[in-house]
Structure formats: structure tokens, C-alpha cells
Design a protein that fits this description.
Trp_repressor/repl_initiator, lipid binding, 4 domains, DNA-binding, Rossmann fold, binds adenosine-5'-triphosphate, globular, Helicase, Ruva Protein, domain 3, DNA replication, alpha/beta, nucleotide-binding, GMP Synthetase, Chain A, domain 3
Length: 471
């Protein structure tokens, strides 16, 4: 890369200046923004006061220009770099056949005293939310619990004729829904930079919708959202019960599907389980492919830990972990992947502090709180309350001798959950449920196991309840 920048005032600026500007930008805009948006920029040249940066997609250039352009110029000013204007041009990939570079995005310094035209809510809405650069397919570890979701995501990321529309990904907290959606977006943008791929959470969709209403820019809002090529909406359960947002979402959804544009949705549960979602939306969400990210199993957790350690080593090299430490963590931390990552980050910090091998004892000591939390078992009370909510039965009925099916089945489910999620013995469970005999509990647990194998509704109920209680 050229090491020297020409300043329009004749002074020379070395590459160090860009380095310095980057440092202060990190402080000014925060580490996350910096890593996602500024770090990937490549400095191309600086001529006549125009500093040019290479970006991978026009989306990236557009985003940086709108959101950080002003701050970048401010930092250049501080360093007296003589930069008046920024240009972001999409750099063709080396391996790709020579292709025409796209028209660069430019950020021109606003002319004082004329105020810079602020991007309207709707213009910003088009850009969605920033993508996390760590959330790529490369970094997604595939195992049994997520293989179907991964395969579907890969298929959608290949682009081409829409096959699963919408793709609906669901699963418990921290199981990789957002990661997969960002991975699809990165891949699509890499394959086809001209595509308008918009990712945002359902909450952001709602706020942008409200802002457009308030600013009387609904027409813009509608046409912008209807002009995207791929729309991804994360955590769609958020709009349940929010009627006008649902309505708008429904129309956007239909318009895009009609144009055969790809839609990808995520939620913490299956479409049919989201209370407060209009029936017409619920059924449309089931039109395409609905896939489930199951809770992680031991092998997947271990794979994720190993991958993260490798990544860490490739950056910092020195990291020694005794045999058995990762296995221990994969065994003991059974919650979501975010918790696993948190545990590892702490171990990495510890390793860099002590400067020697991380042993099992050290890991146990430094992660005591996380391990304790993971040990936390669901209480009987929580199970009973959840069952009452879920099946709409009264606690007094659950504990009563009543045997009608609408009471007996929830009670059996509660016993099954108690057996699987708590350390309680059969007699203890029986006692808690209105002083029943332990054989009744054994029978209930068996009954639910049997029903789960025969009746998909029971299997789904059991899985959902277990997830909700473990979340
Ligand atoms: N299979 C995986 N391989 C590697 N990292 C993973 C995997 N699954 C999850 N992660 C990591 O775990 C963290 C949480 O994942 P993510 O944010 O995608 O979860 P989520 O399902 O969207 O959760 P939430 O319901 O809280 O939004 C992220 O840092 C992600 O990279």
C-alpha cells in the first residue's frame, strides 16, 4: 500500500497519520464500531484533499460515510492532515475477473454555514443495523443441534432463486441466531455487493416505523423497505402485541415476498408459539422454512471452545491451557454459547496476567461464579408456576386430587420437568405435588416420555417448557 499521502497544501503525510487517526477514532466512536467499520477500511490514497479508502461493499462505504465521516474529518483536522473530503470505493477482489469499480461513496465536508442535511429516519432505516464482523460462517461451529439451521442459512446465502422464503430461524437465548443472520448478510454482500441487504432487529423496525410516522415520512419508509433485496428481522417476537407495527411489518413482508425478495426472520420460539402475533402473520411466517437451533450438546460446546482458543492463539500466540480444561468447561457450562464465551474471555485475561499455563484449578477458581450459575437448577416453584401459565390451570388444581385430563396432563408434565430439571427424587417430587406417592411420579414421567414419542404436540410442549425454564 502507498506509504505516503500527498496533502493538497504540499505537506507530506505518512501512513502513521492514518494510524494515529485510527487510534483516536477508536476512542471517539467506541471499540465495537471501530472494529466493525473503521478497521476493515484500507487506505488507498490522498490527493488534492481527498482521502480515498477501499471498502468491500458499497453498503460499508455508505454506512461509514454517513455515520463516521464527520468524525473522521474531525480527527484528520486535529492531525492537520489537510483532508477535506473522504471517498469510499469498492475494491474489486483480486481473484475476481477485472470488473468496473463502482461509483465511490463520498463524504464531503459540510459547507458552513449551510447545515449538513441529516439523513432522514427512513433513509437510515434502509441501512438497517451494523453487522458484527466476527459473525461469519467461518466462525460458526456446526454440530448436531444446529446443522439444519446452518445448512438452510448457507443455502440462502448462496443467493440465486429463492428457495426458502421466508427462512425462519428460532431457538433459545445465545444459540447463534444472530450469528447466522449476520453470516448470511456478509456472504451475500461478498457475492453480490450490489444487493441491498438490510439487517435489523424487530425493535429497530418498530422505532424506525414510529419515527417515520412522527416525521410524516411513511411513504418514504414504505418505499425504502419495499426496495430492499434481502430483509432480515431479528427477534421478531418483539412486535407481538404491537398492532400497528405488526400491520406495517405484514405489508412489507407481503410486498417483498410478492417481488420474490428473500426474507429471513428469527425469534426465540416457533411462529405458532409467539403469543400476541396476529394469525395472518403467524401463518405467513410458516410459509417458507422454519428451522430450529437446538440447545447445544457437549460436542458442540467443546468444538466452539476449541475454535475460540485457536482464534485467540492465531492472534496472540502465547496461550497454554492444561489438558482437560476445555472438556471441563464444555461439561459444566451448559447454558448458551454467550456464557461459554464469557468464561473463555476471562481465562484468556487470566492467562495474559499470570503468564503461565492455565490449569484446571485456576479455571475452577476464576470461573467459580459462572460455574455456580450454570449449576443453578430450576426450582419446583418455577416449574409449577410456568405450567399454570402455559396450560392455564390453577395451582390449587395442580395440587388437588383431581384427575380430569385437562389437569392431570399438565401435572404429569410438571413432574416430568421436575425430574429432568431439578435434583429432586421421585418421593420428594410426589410430596410437593399434594403428597402423592413416588410411584405416581414414576408413572407420570413414563407417560410423558411415551406421549412425546407419539404426539408431536406433547413433544413440542415439553421442549418449549424446558427451554423457557432453563433460559
Ligand atoms: N455455533 C456457534 N459457533 C460459534 N459461535 C457461536 C455459535 N453459536 C453461538 N455462537 C456465539 O455465541 C454468541 C451468542 O450468539 P447469538 O448472538 O447469535 O445468539 P442469539 O441466538 O441471537 O441469542 P439472542 O436470543 O440472545 O439474540 C455470539 O458471540 C456467537 O458468535
Amino acid at each position: 500500500m502507498a506509504a505516503v499521502l500527498n496533502l493538497h497544501n504540499g505537506k507530506n503525510m505518512t501512513n502513521d497519520t492514518w494510524g494515529q487517526a485510527r487510534e483516536s477514532l477508536q476512542t471517539a466512536i467506541g471499540k465495537n464500531n471501530y472494529q466493525t467499520w473503521i478497521e476493515p477500511l484500507t487506505f488507498v490514497s490522498c490527493e488534492d484533499g481527498v482521502a480515498e479508502f477501499g471498502v468491500q461493499t458499497s453498503f460499508q462505504g455508505d454506512w461509514v460515510s454517513r455515520n463516521f465521516g464527520e468524525e473522521m474529518l474531525r480527527q484528520f483536522d486535529k492531525l492537520d492532515a489537510g483532508v477535506d473530503r473522504l471517498r469510499f470505493s469498492v475494491q474489486p477482489k483480486r481473484s475476481a475477473p477485472a470488473k468496473q469499480a463502482q461509483a465511490p461513496e463520498e463524504f464531503a465536508r459540510p459547507q458552513a454555514p449551510k447545515p449538513q442535511k441529516k439523513a432522514t429516519a427512513t433513509e437510515e432505516a434502509l441501512l438497517g443495523a451494523p453487522l458484527d464482523k466476527r459473525f461469519t460462517f467461518d466462525r460458526f461451529v456446526v454440530g448436531k443441534p444446529n446443522e439444519l439451521a446452518h445448512a438452510a442459512a448457507r443455502r440462502v446465502a448462496e443467493g440465486g432463486p429463492v428457495s426458502f422464503n421466508p427462512l425462519f430461524l428460532y431457538g433459545g437465548v445465545g444459540l447463534g441466531k444472530t450469528h447466522l443472520m449476520h453470516a448470511i448478510a456478509w456472504e451475500l454482500q461478498q457475492r453480490s455487493p450490489e444487493l441491498r441487504v438490510v439487517y435489523l432487529s424487530a425493535e429497530q423496525f418498530m422505532y424506525r416505523f414510529i419515527q417515520a410516522l412522527r416525521d410524516r415520512q411513511m411513504m418514504d419508509f414504505k418505499s425504502l423497505f419495499r426496495s430492499v433485496d434481502v430483509l432480515m428481522v431479528d427477534d421478531v417476537q418483539f412486535i407481538a402485541g404491537k398492532d400497528s407495527t405488526q400491520d406495517e411489518f405484514f405489508h412489507t413482508f407481503n410486498a417483498l415476498i410478492d417481488q420474490q425478495k428473500q426474507i429471513i426472520i428469527s425469534a426465540d420460539r416457533a411462529p405458532g408459539e409467539i403469543d400476541g402475533l396476529e394469525e395472518r402473520i403467524r401463518s405467513r411466517l410458516q410459509w417458507g422454512l422454519v428451522v430450529d437451533l437446538h440447545p447445544t450438546d457437549y460436542e458442540l460446546r467443546l468444538g466452539i471452545l476449541q475454535q475460540k482458543v485457536e482464534q485467540y492463539r492465531s492472534q496472540y500466540q502465547e496461550l497454554k491451557i492444561s489438558d482437560g480444561v476445555l472438556e471441563f468447561l464444555a461439561h459444566r457450562i451448559s447454558n448458551n454459547v454467550r456464557v461459554l464465551e464469557g468464561a473463555l474471555t476471562r481465562l484468556f485475561a487470566l492467562a495474559s496476567l499470570v503468564g503461565r499455563e492455565i490449569t484446571l484449578e485456576m479455571a475452577q477458581e476464576s470461573l467459580a461464579d459462572i460455574l455456580r450459575q450454570s449449576d443453578r437448577k430450576v426450582t419446583m416453584d418455577e416449574i409449577m408456576r410456568k405450567i399454570c401459565d402455559y396450560y392455564n390451570v390453577r395451582m390449587s388444581d395442580l395440587l388437588s386430587p383431581k384427575r380430569s385430563r385437562n389437569i392431570a396432563r399438565p401435572r404429569q408434565m410438571a413432574m416430568w420437568l421436575a425430574k429432568h430439571l431439578t435434583q429432586r427424587s421421585y418421593p420428594e417430587i410426589g410430596k410437593r405435588f399434594g403428597n402423592r406417592d413416588h410411584t405416581t411420579v414414576i408413572h407420570a414421567v413414563r407417560k410423558i416420555e411415551e406421549l412425546k414419542a407419539q404426539d408431536s404436540q406433547v413433544a413440542e410442549d415439553a421442549e418449549l417448557l424446558r427451554r423457557m425454564l432453563e433460559a
